[in-house]
Amino acid sequence: GHMGGGCYSVKAIKGKFSPARYGTQMGCETAVIKGIEPISAHEMLERGARLRSDLLDAFARLEEVICEKLGDSGKGLANQSLTQKLNALEKAPFRYPTKAKQRIAEIRSLVDCRNDIVHSVLSIADISGSNAGSYLVFRNVSGIPGCTGREFRALTLEEFKTLVGRAKIVAKQLNDQPLKAATPAAPASASG
Questions:
Q1: pTM value?
Q2: Residue 10: which pLDDT band, with cuts at 50, 70 and 90?
Q3: Residue 40 half-sphere exposure, CB side, CA atoms within 13 Å?
């Protein structure tokens, strides 16, 4: 079987890349690193598919946390996008609003990456140059195609694992953000 390198991965995304157009950025050579056996294109796609599944699970959990924080105010948002739920969450009565807004901003940055991964075909490409290696490649869904060419998000397996971990961490951090009490607390008694 084929053990990585070559032009197989570029052929797998034929139509998205033109060798003449991207020849300088995306060569068919793979950097040889002593002691590290390159994985096959098939194995790369298998690992990418597993990581995509892990990312979907992490975002499903994150969305559950968002809905829990929204409580009754989020009932009408069940079929809305994650971005719309985040917009509603920004208005939630957090006890520490500055910290909560930081968490929401971080989630927003991850949502763009999630959208690219979820709404495009999983492909791989071998890239040469200073960042040589095999990458999982996703079309940038927010990019506007035109005379500037297509935009892609390229992640190594390690970067993808880090992204999954980050989504899990922000879900926990958001879950740990307390909301203000629904009813005012009774004044503490001065007597002991």
A1: 0.70
A2: very low
A3: 6
